[in-house]
Amino acid sequence: MTNTYSTGIYKRISSNLPIILLFFSVLNEFDFNFLNTEYFSFNFAYILIFYYNLKKKDGLGYGAIFIAGIVNDVVVGTPIGLSSLFYLLICGAAAYLRNITLRPNLFKDWIFFLITLLVINSSSYMLLILFFEFEVDYFYILTNTFFTFFLYYFFSYLFNFLETKIIGRIND
Amino acid sequence: MESSRDDFVIAIRSAFIKTGATQRFSLIGLIFFSIILIILGNFNLKFIEYVRSGTQEIIYRASYVVSGPENFLKNINLATKKHFNFYNDYQKNKLELENLRSENLLNKFVIEENLRLMSVINDYLIVSDEVVAKVLIDKQSVFLRSVIVNKGSKDNIKLGMIVLEGDYLVGKIIEVNFLTSRVLLLSDLNSKIPVSIEPKGIQSILSGTGNVDGIIQYLQEKHKTKPGSTVYTSGSGGLFKAGIPIGIVEDMELNNESVVSFFSDFSQLRFVKIASYSEAKFDISGKAKEIERIKAEALKAQKLAHELSIDKKKNLKAKIEAEKLMLVKDEEIKNLKKEIQTIADKKKQKNQIAIKNEHFIILEKKYSRKCKKNFFFPKLYKVGTPEYKECILNKGIK
């Protein structure tokens, strides 16, 4: 009985792990900023959303992503709805890639992720500068984009390992 | 060509419009909802403000709880660093303490002097309300360098209040909720503060760089700052109280702009002071009146002194004139005396002449025949001549 109960909890947690990770990252602004390394930052939420929408579309719901975006806006201090919009655009890009891909290839996903990142970050930069009169460090965004792109490869392997070996879900 | 365009349209439609078995919402619907949220956020409607404030309160608290593990890691990292730097810090602090002790006495003297001078020039005093707040979240995002503190409108926190760590300026309040507030740090790109760079007293604007330091902007070529100069708030514009220490000008320059290293480490903020300052015109009971009274008395005394000086001048003038008059009078008296003497002499002479004449008339009656020339005595004197007169007075020829 206890064994069945604990297995149920484990299954529940493991099936909702992407959502937990997403909310943990947006509430905590998960970017290793405590290391105080200048210019080192990456957007973990972008990696997570892109990966799960591309590979395991059942792992993350659009509603959860939308709410995570709002949470991120509140924590970071950007206009409410902005992160949601970009998170959902990433979802759209990933869904498009999934629809047009016949033979999945990590390298191609990686390059597509770079294009998506550049479009998303340029749009956010322009919106913040032109419409919301924020002053944003361009170089900082560029390095953030670079590290997010660079670390996608690593996290892709990590998530894959988590999904196949620990949770036991197979790629879509 | 036709089929590839169809594939693209089908893929896009499938990605954005289809909900699927597991997705409850369509992507395009949520995207539109996000855009509506962004647009609504720009309207300052009361309802939206309440919703926003409530959402922020919940998310800030949740974020504080979720940040626990990262804060724990952060503290471990800090403790390790501190442990390794302990000896060096001790040596540095020892040296600094010695320097500070020697400077302390001088500072005390300067403070006393300042207070005295302020009261002399009737300058304003600053009254302040301070609230100590705990930093809940210090997530430094790409877009905003800010922290969330656990004091809000419930504790009378208002927009624009300044935030200090110890005596050093950290930032200002830019968002107030019921229980929490957001502090825009000085290092943020959007932070612009009027500053004064001492010892020269150069006025300028300090802007954040988005990193750990700030830069001095809008500085003329002739007003070049020296490394090691201290940066204080200037108080211009009335946003901040003047003289709050901010940082030190570094030895390096960024695009010909001086880099300022802040006194506070913004990544280590735990507790901060939120303060508001207001200018009070020297209104400590009685002091202002006392000064007014003294001023009035001083003015009166000055007036009297002025009048006195005028009187003195008049007196002096009168004295000089009197002396002049005295001199003139003396001269006149002398002349008059002379004249009197002359008149008296003349009178005396006249009297003598009159006496002489009387005596002559008496003697002439007696001795006229002894002196008068006539036929018989041709050798005698003719009447009226001086010889005749002498002859009469001598009672005849001797």
| Beta strand % of chain A | under 5%
Structural shape of chain B: rod-shaped
Beta content of chain B: 15-25%
Provide mean pLDDT of chain A, rounded: 82
The chain-level structural class of chain A is mainly alpha
Which CATH-level-2 architecture of the domain at 125-280 in chain B?
A: Beta Barrel
Count, helices of chain A: 7
Order of helices and strands of chain A: HHHHHHH
Summarize the largest interface: chains and residue counts.
Answer: A-B, 49 and 56 residues
Mean pLDDT over all positions of chain B: 79
Biggest pleated-sheet summary of chain B: 6 strands, antiparallel, barrel
Overall 3D form of chain A: globular
Total strands of chain A: the figure is 0
How many structurally independent domains of chain A?
1
Fraction of residues of chain A in helices?
Answer: over 70%
Low-confidence stretches of chain B: none
Strand order of the largest sheet of chain B: 1-2-5-4-3-12
CATH H level, superfamily name of the domain at 125-280 in chain B: Rod shape-determining protein MreC, domain 1
The run of helices and strands of chain B is HHHHHEEEEEEEEEEEEHH
